[in-house]
Specification:
The chain has seven helices and seven strands. By secondary structure, it is of the alpha+beta class. The strands form two sheets. The protein has a four-stranded mixed β-sheet, with helices on one face. This is Endonuclease/exonuclease/phosphatase domain-containing protein.
Length: 263
């Protein structure tokens, strides 16, 4: 038996076909009927020694049933958490010795040994995909940054990969972490409001106004972030909606409150 690159198959699974009235089939992800048919056909054509499926998105019971239907006698399952994650390692040959060293939601690390007693390490990883954040476009330097990153005579694939790497670095170095920025600004505003000279110090008033403006910008970015990340419209998400407007209001105090009375 040989185990070469062309005999090892790996794939991300994203299957959940709508049934009647828009409901999902009971068996979704890698256990769905559509995916089962596709995988059986592929294994018949390519005859892989090892198949790795990632983002399988189904329960352990459904996973075992699906793997049996695929025709694999040996397997390791890193179960999905709800409809997130899931890694299946599947093989047929009893002479292929696979020892799982570590198995987590995001990866499975294993040592493999074939009938020639040759061994090597293999890790199946669910890598976090790159996603363009819509809130980046709110940064004043965003347009120029994209223009410079895209200004190249290289092939499209190289330009895209390079722009992706630069965006990740730019997000970390320039744009910054939204929640961390928000907490820092709120702490500064609360510190100003606790000051004994609050509302009597023009400098503190100007600083608070400046910080409130920065906070408004941060909250707008956070709102866009939640819209993009949520599967439903963010504005109807009661939990995030409440926290968002709560943050917008509670950090401000009325200017006309009475600090003291004098007879």
């Amino acid at each position: 038996m040989q185990l070469e690159g062309e005999h090892i198959c790996g794939a991300n699974v994203d299957v959940g076909l709508p049934g009647e009235k828009g409901m999902l089939e009971p068996m979704v992800g890698a256990a769905s009927k559509a995916f089962s048919r596709t995988l059986r056909e592929l294994t018949k054509v390519y005859k892989p020694d090892l198949v790795i499926l990632m983002e399988t998105r189904c329960s352990s019971d459904n996973a075992k049933k699906a793997i049996k239907s695929f025709g694999f006698d040996f397997y390791h399952i890193e179960e999905a958490q709800g409809y997130s994650g899931g890694i299946w390692i599947m093989w047929k040959d009893p002479d292929l010795d696979i020892r799982v060293v570590q198995s987590k939601m995001q990866f499975v690390h294993m040592i493999m040994k074939n009938d020639s007693n040759k061994s090597w390490a293999l890790t199946a990883v669910i890598e976090k995909p790159f996603r363009y954040e819509a809130m980046w476009s709110m940064h004043p330097g965003h347009k120029e940054f994209i223009k410079q990153a895209w200004d190249s005579n290289q092939p499209l694939k190289i330009v895209l990969n390079g722009t992706t790497r630069q965006l990740i670095k730019w997000n970390k170095d320039v744009f910054g972490h939204v929640r961390r920025q928000k907490r820092k600004i709120i702490n500064r505003i609360e510190g100003i409001q606790r000051a004994s000279s609050y509302e009597k110090n023009p400098f503190l008033e100007k600083l608070e106004a400046k910080l409130n403006k920065e906070l408004e910008d941060i909250l707008d970015k956070e709102k866009i972030l939640w819209i993009q990340k949520s599967r439903d419209l963010w504005v109807v998400d009661e939990d995030h909606n409440t926290r968002y407007y709560h943050t917008r209001t509670v950090i401000r105090r009325r200017r006309n409150k009475i600090l003291k009375l004098k007879d």
